[in-house]
TrEMBL record, chain A:
Domain of life assignment: Bacteria
Membrane disposition: Multi-pass membrane protein
Species lineage: Bacteria, Bacillati, Bacillota, Bacilli, Bacillales
Keywords: Cell membrane, Membrane, Transmembrane, Transmembrane helix
Pfam family, one: Oxidored_q2
Name the record gives this protein: Monovalent cation/H+ antiporter subunit C
Entry GO CC: plasma membrane
TrEMBL record, chain B:
Family annotation (NCBIfam families): PRK07691.1
UniProt KW Oxidoreductase keyword: yes
Protein keywords: Antiport, Cell membrane, Membrane, Oxidoreductase, Transmembrane, Transmembrane helix, Transport
Organism of provenance: Ureibacillus sinduriensis BLB-1 = JCM 15800
Name of the protein in its database record: Monovalent cation/H+ antiporter subunit D
Primary localization: membrane
EC number assigned by the record: 1.6.5.3
Highest taxon of source: Bacteria
Biological process terms in GO annotation: ATP synthesis coupled electron transport
Membrane topology category: Multi-pass membrane protein
Molecular function as annotated in GO: antiporter activity; NADH dehydrogenase (ubiquinone) activity; oxidoreductase activity
InterPro entries the UniProt entry points to: CPA3_Na-H_Antiporter_D, NADH_UbQ_OxRdtase, ND/Mrp_TM
Length: 113, 496
């Protein structure tokens, strides 16, 4: 199971990097979304898939999954959600002000303003 | 009173929250910010003295035993960095009163600063690797706010790149923590250190060490990963730039220092050799950039890159002289970079341009500014009575002791380039025939900018003169870096 997930994570990273290297800002943001999905799936995988019951105390169950990676993922998800929301609004604002979403046109010198 | 070490984190956080209310009342915002910072400085100074007397201070949240809860550790290095952070933040906020502008002040500028301080102090103090990630995100989120606040075109353009780079490095941080967790099965830094010592750092941990270098190197702007820094730092206004230049990259440097002295100490010939080479290349890249530009901001920004290289060169030596020098130089560099950014901010204000070629003859009109710039520039280079000397001396001593003769000579040679780049600003802007001068320089605004800057330069002079007095503190900090068992023992005992 871990092997399969490792390949899935690898595929997500590959797609993310391809999208981040593209020119359109929106594709880049989609790429960062895929990147954080891959990272979160990787935490879950690296915590290993041992155990069958969800980590909630109940009678007669001893075979819990590792609760720690789930807590880490939950933290990482809300953080990346906050950053993505900010990034999307920034992209919207930048599109209004700079009149472009092409990263190659966002050159950083005084003459371009 | 073991919770005392949390105060420098909690007080700015608390003040950030109450500053969210009453956003239009500028007087209230200013007074509360300064009040909060002074209060935190007092607590941080108390913390430094406490650590000096009683050794590392530890608190584990919720009374859980050490590896299970989140531990906060204040050893001498983090206590000193926390104190420096707060002092610099106070001077930069004071400087900002005159220059940041009403619009920004009314739009969560001060809460942003307080949140960034919370994140930086938390990152310096935490003893848990995932908690370090969270504090990194706290300071990064606040820095996104500050870099884009104002919404000028340049700011929008550069903040997109800045955020993209940091989102990628944060994802890489999460991935690295996941790998580390799967190998050692713990997140507490002291426990990780012990577990790695138990299994004696097999190949996979060396890979993780390099991944950590990538992650923190992207924050700290080391050689192949510094590409985002020059353009991103040219966008925000000067007080924000001073805050970023003094604090943000240094958090990355601190994180590299911490992980490379606490975790990955069993395969020095690979990890620390790599760090050494990257540090040298960082210095070279910074030197080239510092000489290539005629923009005052860019020259100082590339000097950040050089300093990061020099500090990491000291860390890579892994002997007591090198580490002590790295700490001396780290704190010196935080102070002097803030002072230099504030000084060139004044230069930009009185001339109305960032282009060196258009400036000239400021020595006649603003002699005090010229002399203070000269002192700060000599401090940056490390002329003996001033602040940069002792750190570089110890780093060089460490380099020779470790037998890296050629690279150490290169570090020494970089000082000449730093001197050249800093003096070039002095020669172009202060000597010669009178160049461009801004027509609407107000005396009161100039004083408002100049007084905090002068105080900070004087502080840096005292840092240089008071070396004898500071040495025991720095020695303590270097000792704990050199011998991680002090750290792990203190944490695993459950704190005092």
């Amino acid at each position: 199971m871990e092997i399969v997930m490792a390949f899935v994570c690898g595929f997500l990273f590959m797609a993310a990097i391809y999208l981040i290297l593209s020119r359109s800002l929106l594709r880049i943001i989609i790429g960062t979304g895929l990147l954080s999905h891959g990272a979160h799936l990787l935490i879950l995988t690296m915590g290993s898939f041992k155990g069958s019951a969800p980590p909630v105390l109940s009678e007669g169950v001893t075979d819990f999954v590792d609760p720690l990676p789930q807590a880490l993922i939950l933290t990482a998800i809300v953080i990346s959600f906050g950053v993505t929301a900010f990034f999307l609004v920034l992209a919207y604002r930048a599109y209004h002000e700079l009149k472009t979403d092409d990263m190659t046109l966002m050159k950083g010198s005084e003459d371009n303003e | 009173m073991n919770n005392f070490l949390l105060l420098p984190i909690i007080i700015p956080f608390f003040f950030a929250m109450i500053l969210m209310f009453g956003q239009k009342k500028i007087a209230y915002q200013r007074i509360m910010t300064i009040f909060g910072l002074v209060l935190s400085i007092l607590c941080a100074a108390g913390l430094v003295l406490n650590v000096r007397e009683n050794g590392p201070q530890i608190v584990t949240f919720g009374n859980w035993p050490a590896p299970f809860g989140i531990t906060m550790v204040s050893d001498m290095m983090s206590a000193l960095l926390v104190l420096t952070t707060l002092v610099l933040a106070m001077f930069i906020v004071w400087y900002g009163f005159a220059s940041i502008g009403r619009k920004r002040e009314q739009f969560f500028y001060y809460p942003g600063i307080m949140f960034i301080i919370t994140g930086v102090n938390g990152a310096f103090t935490t003893g848990d690797i995932f908690n370090l990630f969270v504090f990194f995100e706290v300071l990064l989120m606040a820095s996104y706010l500050l870099i884009v606040l104002g919404g000028e075109k340049a700011q929008l353009r550069e903040s997109i790149k800045y955020i993209l780079v940091n989102v990628i490095s944060s994802a890489l941080f999460v991935i690295t923590v996941a790998y580390l967790y799967s190998v050692v099965g713990t997140l507490n830094m002291a426990d990780i250190s012990l577990k790695i010592a138990e299994i004696n750092q097999p190949g996979i941990l060396t890979v993780i060490a390099v991944l950590f270098l990538l992650v923190f190197g992207m924050k700290a702007a080391i050689f192949p990963l510094y590409f985002w820094l020059p353009s991103a730092y040219s966008a925000p206004p000067i007080p924000v730039l001073a805050l970023f230049g003094a604090l943000l990259t240094k958090v990355g440097v601190y994180a590299i220092t911490r992980t490379y002295t606490l975790f990955f100490t069993h395969d020095l010939s690979y990890t620390h050799e790599l760090l050494l080479i990257l540090a040298i290349l960082t210095i070279v890249a910074g030197c080239i950039g510092a000489l290539a530009h005629f923009d005052v901001k860019q020259i100082i920004i590339y000097n950040i890159v050089i300093a990061v290289g020099v500090i990491l060169f000291g860390v890579a030596q892994m002997n007591e002289a090198g580490l002590e020098g790295a700490i001396f130089y780290l704190i010196h560099d935080m102070i002097i970079k803030a002072a230099l950014f504030m000084l060139i901010g004044i230069v930009i204000y009185v001339t109305g341009t960032t282009n060196l070629r258009k400036m000239g003859g400021l020595m006649k009109t603003y002699p005090a500014l010229g002399w203070f710039y000269l002192i700060a520039a000599f401090g940056l280079v490390g002329v003996p009575p001033l602040s940069g000397f002792i750190g570089k001396l110890l780093i060089v001593q460490g380099g020779f002791e470790a037998g890296n003769t050629w690279s150490t000579l290169l570090v020494l040679a970089s000082s000449i380039i730093v001197l050249l780049s800093a003096m070039r600003i002095f020669i172009y802007a202060f000597w010669g025939v009178e160049g461009q001068l801004s027509s609407n320089v107000e005396k009161s605004k100039f004083n408002g900018l100049f007084i905090p800057t002068a105080f900070l330069v004087v502080l840096s002079i005292f840092y240089g003169i008071g070396t004898e007095w500071l040495t025991p503190f720095m020695g303590d900090a270097a000792k704990i870096l050199f011998d991680p068992s002090i750290y792990t023992d203190a944490v695993m005992k459950g704190g005092n």
